[in-house]
Design the sequence.
C-alpha cells in the first residue's frame, strides 16, 4: 500500500510539473493552472509567468518564435495592463495594453529614430499624442487609426510651423503655416497644399487674398504690394492670368486681359 501511494504521489507531481495539453498540443513546466509556470506551444512560442484558471494571468513574459518579446501583465490569456514589447527590428513599445492590443497611454520608439508618446486604441495611435521624427520635426495633436487626424501642430527643424487641421497625415482644412523667413499663409489646405480661400502675407509687407489650388494662386484674388500698388483679378498657376485691374500708388489704373503675368490689352 505504501509503495502504491508513493507511486501515485510521484505521478501526480510529474503531471503538475510537466504536462501536455491535448487541446492545443502545448507543454507545461510548473503550475500552468493556478500558479507559476512555463508553457510552450507547438509553434515554439513560450510563456513564463503567472497562471489563473488555465490562462496567462498576472506578470509574465511571452517570447515569440520570431524573436519578438513581451514582458508585462496579462489577464484572461491576453496582454492586459502595463507591458513592454520589443521587436527584432529594434522597435520598442512601452505602455498600456487591453485585450491583447496597445490601448491607453504608451511610448512607441521606432528603430529609425521616430518616437511617439500618447494615446493608443485598437493597437494604433488614437487620441492625443506627440510624434518626434528622427529628423527633428515634431507633430503634436490628434490621431485616428494610426494617422494624424484633427487639430494638430507640426514644428519643423528649419523653423517653419503649421497649426491647423489634418486628415490622414496631411494638412486638410483650415490652418496657418508660418515660414521661418517670416511669410505666413492663413486659409484652406487640401492634401498638404494651399487650396481654397487663403491669405498669404510676405515678410516684406506684400499680401495676397484670394483663391488657391494645388499650392498656387488660382482663381479670383487681390495682391497688394507694400508700395501701395494693387492687382485685383484672375490668377492661374501663381501668375496674373485673365481679366484684371492694376491700380498703382500714384493713381494710375491698368485694366485688361493678362497672360501669364503680363497685360495683353487695355
Sequence:
Amino acid at each position: 500500500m505504501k509503495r502504491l501511494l508513493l507511486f501515485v504521489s510521484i505521478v501526480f507531481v510529474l503531471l503538475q510539473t510537466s504536462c501536455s495539453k491535448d487541446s492545443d498540443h502545448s507543454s507545461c513546466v510548473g503550475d500552468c493552472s493556478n500558479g507559476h509556470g512555463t508553457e510552450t506551444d507547438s509553434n515554439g512560442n513560450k510563456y513564463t509567468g503567472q497562471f489563473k484558471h488555465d490562462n496567462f494571468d498576472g506578470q509574465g513574459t511571452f517570447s515569440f518564435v520570431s524573436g519578438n518579446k513581451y514582458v508585462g501583465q496579462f489577464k484572461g490569456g491576453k496582454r492586459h495592463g502595463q507591458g513592454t514589447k520589443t521587436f527584432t527590428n529594434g522597435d520598442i513599445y512601452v505602455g498600456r495594453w487591453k485585450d491583447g492590443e496597445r490601448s491607453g497611454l504608451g511610448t512607441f520608439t521606432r528603430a529609425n529614430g521616430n518616437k511617439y508618446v500618447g494615446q493608443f486604441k485598437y493597437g494604433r495611435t488614437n487620441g492625443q499624442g506627440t510624434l518626434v521624427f528622427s529628423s527633428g520635426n515634431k507633430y503634436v495633436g490628434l490621431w485616428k487609426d494610426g494617422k494624424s487626424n484633427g487639430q494638430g501642430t507640426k514644428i519643423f527643424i528649419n523653423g517653419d510651423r503649421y497649426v491647423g487641421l489634418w486628415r490622414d497625415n496631411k494638412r486638410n482644412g483650415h490652418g496657418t503655416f508660418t515660414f521661418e523667413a517670416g511669410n505666413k499663409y492663413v486659409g484652406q489646405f487640401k492634401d498638404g497644399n494651399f487650396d481654397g480661400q487663403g491669405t498669404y502675407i510676405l515678410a516684406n509687407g506684400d499680401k495676397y487674398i484670394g483663391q488657391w489650388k494645388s499650392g498656387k494662386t488660382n482663381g479670383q484674388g487681390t495682391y497688394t504690394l507694400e508700395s501701395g500698388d494693387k492687382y485685383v483679378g484672375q490668377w492661374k498657376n501663381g501668375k496674373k492670368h485673365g481679366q484684371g485691374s492694376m491700380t498703382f500708388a500714384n493713381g494710375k489704373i491698368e485694366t485688361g486681359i493678362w497672360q501669364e503675368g503680363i497685360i495683353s490689352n487695355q
Q: What stands out?
A: The first strand starts at residue 18 and ends at 21.
